[in-house]
Write a structure and sequence with these properties.
This protein is α+β, with helices and mostly antiparallel strands and 1226 residues long. Strands 12, 13, 14, 15, 16, 17, 18 and 19 form an eight-stranded antiparallel β-sheet that branches. Strands 20, 23, 24, 25, 26, 27 and 28 form a seven-stranded mixed β-sheet that branches. Strands 34, 35, 36, 37, 38 and 39 form a six-stranded antiparallel β-sheet that branches.
Length: 1226
């Protein structure tokens, strides 16, 4: 069906003489096909004769409703083969036949229920579809399968329903009717089969074949205004009141018998131009001819005014032939889609033409363009045929567009209020109208480019499916129309581009390849043009598009149907287009690579192509794993794990090649693809785990780690500093904005979006263009390909804002296929925004105003907001507690840019009199005593058996002396027998830059502490927490003899904390004490941060929504940097008065080490962590912290105006106390 419709589309492009160059090879639908189903069986030999006795189900009749002659061969009362004679040709290709109707008659022989029906149809030219009327024997719920040849595998196919006339009427009114898997509206078991041969025509007229249903509705749209013109080359308005042209400014003065008028439809249109002139001398019936010859009428159309004024045939981009008819008064617009009047463009302008005047009730000369055209402006030129006749007045001419609009409803919505950066309020109303208008124009662009159930690149050029346009428009479709069918049809025809040229290789690969990918036989090189659209990168985008389609629509049946095509192309790329050693994609000089309009030679496109190749491999792995799971669930024998292992191996080789490169140089397109594809993140993951490059040299590994982790900063600088050439296509501009979003710079992404797409609106765009530079003016926008009107001004790949606005402003994007799990992350600078997104589970509705965020979560889905999962239902959140990932990105900036202290400030084995056996130090905490200028640091010393807390002092925070015991272990049998870890002190002030002075209550200082009841190992489970006190702040003891918090209570202990309780952190706020503690869950060993509260420091109550900071296991590269997927531990919480929020420093474990992370809250209860560390393990070039950097203590040095951050540094020098310093507060 898809190939047939695509053949019709290609023929229409050819007939319309569109200026198209296509480098690839399209696939034609087959002339021989096999169909079968699971109700009965028949086997047909090559000449169409059956020979298998009682198990044969005979085809009772084969009916070919067509105008051309046909011959039907019958054998034994059953039609076996159909051959169509007198086939006309077009452009050297055979004509397309119409549907074939097969009626399966089981009355002749017994039918067994456990065998199959097989239909073998051979026709040339091939039919678009086989129609099998449903009966009690052949129900509509049957699952049919198809194969192209006797040796091919059976493939599940889509079954369509034929539509009744009422359904067809509904479809033309804009109501899309789903033909897939629905009951036929006229059940054929109610009809006498014997009467069907006697009433063929009547039968055909009662229902409509699926391939005959026009996926468009035709609406009559009138122009919004007429443009006054003084001539073909002079389009200025007439200003002189004495000029006789004021009476009719649309008549040319120097051509007395010619009328020229230019009409502006106000927006881009796709349809046929209809022009009519009153024929008052004509008879009332259109079956009679007029007494006089009709005037001569010609049209010119253009996407710009200048194009409509062009008469040079060398610069015509479309065929402007017209057909003439004489229309009777009672016909009017009835036959031309008058039902579409609701689509007329109305205006208060005096020149608007939007009403049918009385002249429409007279006979009219009517001209209609022979082909569907893309235009905004129409010029009509009328010459009188009779020498004595004056040309008609402009008021006599009626012009309209018979618009061919796809049967799409805008299911998604988007409206926006102020979305500034929080500082500029002067352009609030302008921004509001701009954002909403950009989204609406983008959705209209995509709507026009969804033509004949295909996503085409442009409506003027080329009006054909291209993989690049599809790849960038799938997300836009998901956020606006949620139209799966057009994406399915486009993927189907694209997947078969050039497929015949590689089929022999694929057949050998699929059947004979071993696990290493080696062939049993050596095959010759493939035929030309094996790639999608004839370009290597578009073959890669085809794989990515399948992955993207599953991400947004979760259409597993379609994936199973198309998997053979996807796998064949992947195997071809693996075998013939890639280097098995390095993983690089092999590019030959004659290979076509597009990437973007960035260079003429393939060398400059090599780096982005290799990144795209990695992305396609990653998507292919994901698709293959999905198919493997589906096959296993269905109990099918076929195993896809072989292709999975081949793809993983090739991707791994490619990653190793990247990591071995000493100097990775990227241009703008490579930076964009590296971020969006996830390659940079994967390289970081890969470099962070194991000494892959040289097992004997850890230094080499960390050199690579540091270099790879700089890629994100390099990408951010490259995209923002303006030194690299700008991207000039919406195709890659969309991907660039996604990259900025992924880099955590959503304000910049929004700024680029407004500037680029808003720039097109500034030059009077009604749809978005194929290419655009912000320096271009309205005079320049049409010129392209060295042609004055070669640019497409309505292009599918420019529809990106439909997806970008909801994703940037509200952070809405799927985390699991089909929105089963999705993210909501609204920007704080947004004042008001509303959006709706249609999913397979129902609508997602999201409304953000000044006070609340209101979200409707469809049943069967879950929303992730600030790291917390919310299931189906309506939810309301106060904006005062909301923090976005963009907020964390901005707020975290002040805690970056650290300078390393070269050595441990307290070594792993410090010399402490009486405690010489210490082998590790850990958990530094800085404090001061009232009235004392000294700085004190408590830290833990571990001697291989037990923990004890020690104290050191300093006057400059660099040199630490006078180390002694602060608090020792408890007695055997107590909860702190194995060790005590001081550090959760009660401070006078928790402002982040204040002095860390201890607070005294009732003559004592207080601290919570962690403890262990067992000895002999490091952090032996289970842990406990206790309360300590001190009268001098130097020597501490237990204040309470029992633990205050443990895995045994108080309160309900949940699974996340069932195995161990670790280090606390104490905060006093508004008369309430907060205890932030981390706990462990086994066997997966995940640590997360919880909260308990108290009024007296002695009795604690666990927070009901614990943990308040959960490990980041969300599968999203923006919210999950991978640095805290296992641990979020050891919280240190302070108040930032400047920005008005709480700051939590903690350490995360992921990517092979522990890293210093940061999270933020407005109420101490709801926390949002930043996805990337403020300091990563291995950042110190000396190797001091190459394994872990964690457990911090932060203090602002008022004398030097610097931040001092002490932390536990684990690396070449063992486990000791390290230091990093930030030079300035800013």
């Amino acid at each position: 069906m898809e190939l047939y419709r695509h053949a019709l589309l290609r023929r229409s492009v050819y007939d319309a003489k569109m200026n198209v160059w296509y480098p690839g090879t399209w696939k034609c639908h087959r002339s021989r096909s096999y169909f079968h189903d699971g109700i009965s069986s028949s086997s047909l030999d090559d000449d169409g004769r059956g020979g298998y006795g009682e198990d044969v189900v005979y085809v009772h009749s084969v009916r070919i409703p067509t105008a051309i002659s046909s011959r039907i061969h019958r054998y034994g009362g059953a039609a076996r083969r159909c051959e169509v004679d007198d086939d006309p040709t077009y452009d050297g290709h055979r004509a397309l036949s119409v549907a074939v109707v097969l009626e399966l008659d089981t009355s002749y022989h017994r039918v067994r229920e456990d065998v199959d029906v097989d239909v073998h149809a051979t026709m040339d030219p091939p039919p678009p579809c086989i129609v099998v009327p449903t009966t009690s024997i052949v129900p509509s719920t049957i699952s049919w399968e198809w194969r192209g040849g006797i040796e091919d595998e059976w493939i599940a196919i889509d079954a369509y329903s034929c539509l009744s006339s009422s359904d067809v009427e509904n479809s033309h009114r804009g109501r899309k009717v789903d033909q897939r898997r629905v009951e036929t509206h006229r059940p054929y078991d109610e009809v006498d089969v014997d009467d069907m041969d006697n009433d063929v025509d009547a039968k055909v007229e009662t229902w409509n074949f699926p391939h005959e249903i026009d996926p468009c509705r035709i609406s009559t749209v009138r122009p919004s205004r007429r443009l006054p013109t003084m001539g073909d080359d002079d389009v200025t308005f007439v200003e002189d009141e004495d000029d006789d042209r004021r009476a009719d400014p649309f008549r040319m003065k120097n051509h007395e018998r010619r009328l020229v008028a230019v009409y502006d439809f106000g927006r881009e249109m796709l349809g046929k131009v209809r022009a009519s002139i009153s024929a008052s001398d004509a008879p009332a019936s259109s079956t009679m001819t007029s007494r006089r010859r009709p005037p001569s009428l010609a049209i010119r159309v253009g996407e710009t005014h200048a194009e409509a004024l062009n008469d040079d045939t060398n610069h015509f981009e479309q065929c402007i032939d017209v057909t003439y008819s004489l229309e009777a008064p009672d016909e009017g617009f009835r036959d031309y889609g008058g039902r579409g009047g609701e689509d007329r463009i109305d205006s208060d302008d005096d020149d608007v033409v939007n009403a049918v005047d009385d002249s429409e009730r007279c006979p009219r000369h009517v001209w209609i363009s022979s082909h569907i055209l893309a235009f905004r402006y129409v010029r009509v030129i009328v010459d009188s045929r009779d020498g004595d006749d004056a040309p008609p007045s402009s008021n006599d001419v009626t012009v309209a567009c018979l618009a061919h609009m796809p049967l799409l409803r805008v299911r998604g919505t988007f409206t926006c209020g102020d979305c500034g950066d929080g500082t500029d309020t002067s352009a609030k109303e302008e921004r509001q109208s701009l954002d909403s208008r950009i989204w609406q124009v983008a959705s209209y662009t995509l709507q026009l480019c969804t033509h004949q159930n295909f996503v085409v690149d442009g409506i003027k050029r080329d009006r054909l499916p291209w993989a690049g346009d599809l790849a960038t428009s799938i997300a836009a479709n998901a956020y606006s129309f949620c139209d799966e069918e057009s994406i399915r049809c486009t993927l189907t025809v694209l997947g078969r581009c050039g497929l015949d040229n590689i089929v022999d290789v694929m057949r050998c690969d699929r059947n004979k390849v071993d696990e290493s990918g080696a062939f049993d036989s050596v095959l010759t090189a493939t035929k030309p043009d094996p790639h999608v659209n004839g370009m290597i990168d578009y073959s890669l985008w085809f794989i990515v598009s399948h992955w993207s389609y599953q991400k947004y629509f979760d259409d597993h049946p379609f994936l199973r149907r198309e998997w053979n095509v996807i796998e064949s192309r992947l195997r071809f790329l693996l075998k013939w287009c890639s280097d098995g050693e390095t993983g690089w994609l092999i590019v030959n000089e004659d290979d076509r690579i597009f990437i973007d309009w960035i260079a003429e030679n393939n060398a400059e496109k090599s780096t982005p192509l290799q990144i795209l190749w990695w992305h396609a491999l990653d998507c292919g792995i994901s698709l293959a794993q999905k198919v493997c799971l589906m096959n296993e669930k269905a109990g099918e024998a076929r195993n896809t794990r072989g292709i999975v292992s081949l793809l993983i191996d090739m991707q791994s080789r490619l990653e190793r090649s990247y990591l071995r490169m000493d100097d990775i140089q990227f241009g703008r397109h490579a930076h964009v693809l590296g971020v969006v594809s996830g390659l940079f993140k994967r390289l970081d993951d890969r470099a962070s785990v194991g000494d892959w490059s040289n097992p004997d040299s850890s230094d080499d590994r960390w050199h690579i780690v540091r270099r790879v982790r700089n890629l994100y900063d390099e990408a951010r600088n490259a995209l923002m500093d303006g030194t690299l050439p700008n991207i000039t296509t919406p195709y890659f501009k969309y991907i660039e904005i996604l990259a900025l979003n992924a880099l955590g710079d959503r304000p910049s992404a929004l700024k680029v979006l407004r500037s680029y797409w808003g720039g097109m609106l500034d030059v009077n765009a009604s749809t978005f263009f194929e290419s655009f530079s912000e320096e271009e003016t309205s005079v320049d926008i049409a010129r392209f390909y060295d042609r004055p009107f070669g640019r497409s001004l309505c292009h599918a790949w420019a529809s990106g804002p439909c997806a970008l606005y909801p994703e940037i402003l509200l952070g809405l994007r799927p985390l699991c296929d089909g929105w089963r799990e999705w993210l909501c992350d609204p920007l704080n600078c947004v004042e008001t925004v509303s959006t709706s997104i249609k999913t397979k589970y129902g609508f997602i509705h999201c409304h953000l105003d000044a006070d609340y965020l209101r979200v409707s979560v469809p049943n069967g889905t879950s929303m992730i907001l600030m790291g917390v999962r919310h299931t189906g239902g309506n939810h309301c959140f106060s904006r005062t507690s909301l923090i976005s990932s963009q907020d964390t990105h901005e707020w975290a900036k002040k805690y970056r840019g650290w300078t390393h202290y070269p050595t441990h400030v307290i070594k792993s084995n410090p010399i402490i009199p009486g405690y010489e056996g210490i082998i590790m130090t850990d958990v530094p905490t800085i404090y001061q005593l009232p009235g004392d200028d000294l700085f004190y640091m408590s830290f833990v010393g571990f001697d291989g058996v037990k923990y004890q807390s020690f104290l050191a002092e300093s006057i400059d925070l660099l040199n630490w002396t006078n180390m002694r015991l602060a608090m020792g272990c408890g007695e055997q049998g107590t909860f702190d027998f194995g060790g005590v870890v001081l550090g959760a002190y009660l401070y006078e002030n928790y402002q982040i830059d204040s002095k860390r002075v201890l607070k005294k209550l009732n003559g004592k200082f207080y601290s919570l502490f962690g403890s262990y009841s067992k000895r002999g190992s490091y952090e032996p489970d289970p842990g406990y927490q206790g309360l300590a006190s001190s009268r001098d702040g130097l020597l501490w003891e237990r204040e309470k003899q029992t633990s205050i918090l443990s895995i045994y209570g108080p309160g309900i202990v949940k699974d996340w904390e069932k195995d161990s309780i670790y280090q606390p952190w104490l905060v006093e706020h508004e008369g309430l004490y907060y205890n932030f503690y981390n706990a462990k869950e086994m066997p997966q060993w995940i640590e997360q941060i919880g909260l308990a509260t108290s009024n007296d420091l002695h009795n604690w109550l666990r927070h009901e929504d614990n943990p308040v900071l959960r490990v980041n296991n969300v599968s999203d590269s923006i919210t999950n940097g991978g640095f805290d997927t296992q641990f979020k531990s050891d919280a240190k919480v302070f108040w930032d008065e400047v920005v008005g929020h709480w700051v939590m420093f903690y350490f995360g474990v992921g990517k092979g080490g522990a890293h210093i992370m940061v999270a933020f809250s407005k109420d101490l209860l709801h926390w949002m962590s930043h996805s990337n560390p403020i300091y990563t393990a291995g950042a110190n070039p000396s190797g001091l912290d190459k394994q872990h950097a964690h457990k911090i203590s932060l203090i602002w040095n008022h004398l030097s105006e610097t931040w001092f951050m002490f932390y536990c540094a684990v690396g070449d020098a063992g486990r000791g106390i390290g230091l990093i310093i930030q030079d300035s507060k800013s």
